[in-house]
Each structure stands twice: as C-alpha cells, then as structure tokens.
Amino acid sequence: MNKLPDGVTLQLYFSPVGATCGDQDVLFSSSKKWLHPLFELEVFLASHSVGESHDLLLRDTIVGRAAAFLILRMRLRRVETDLVSRRAIALLKEHSIEFEATLTVDAIDCMTEELLKDISDPVTAYAILSERRSKANLAVR
After folding, report:
1. CA dist 28 → 9, 14, 32, 87, 97 (Å)
2. Which superfamily does 10-140 belong to?
C-alpha cells in the first residue's frame, strides 16, 4: 500500500492495474481535512482528462461512509486507506469498488458518519454532504 507524504491526507495516482509503486504518477494531492480533499478532487476530475477510472488509484487516510459516497460519485474504482469504517465497506462492496485498508472500525467517530448511517441513495447523501460543506465553508470565513 502507498504511504502518503507527511501532512498529505489524500492523493490520486495514475496507476494502471498491475503497475508497481514506482510506476504511479501523482495526479492530485491535498493536505486538507474532513471531506474537503474529496470535494476538491471532484472539481479536479471534472476539469481534467486523467484517463480511465480503472487506471486511477485513490489513497486517502480515512474512508467513512461519507467518503465512500463521494468516491462512488466520482466513479473511482480502487481505494487504499489507513482506516475504513464497516459502514463504508458495505457501500464500497455494493458498488464493486476495490479497497485495501490497514485498519477497520465499526464507524468513524464523526457526525457526518452518523448522519449518513441509514442513507442508501447517493443523490440524497451528496445533497447532505454539500450542505454540510457549505456550512463549514461559511464558518471559516
């Protein structure tokens, strides 16, 4: 599994299936917290041609249910993480997203994880996450 550089919370690699670690190009990187890197990645992917989704590998520090919904929305197919929640695993497996994790927990200790625990519709989840992101961005100003 790839190790992220110090201070980096998320990276997207161009990594064809079967490539070795040395064959991976970093396409996107972020050091932000919460779900902000995934929202930024969504904007990046919408504005850049980066190849087929099966040639991309997302490396994130924590993948809870909210992150899993965003990963699904971006049509990413492969994920590596230090920590994954069982709630995220259910969603990743349901949508045939390959993942590798160092540690699995029942749930991430986060209000967003709790808010989405009974949500199964990706559109509803995205609306909830977008609203929370807007509120977080307003609070920072």
Report:
1. 11, 10, 12, 26, 20
2. Hypothetical protein TM1506 (3.40.140.30)
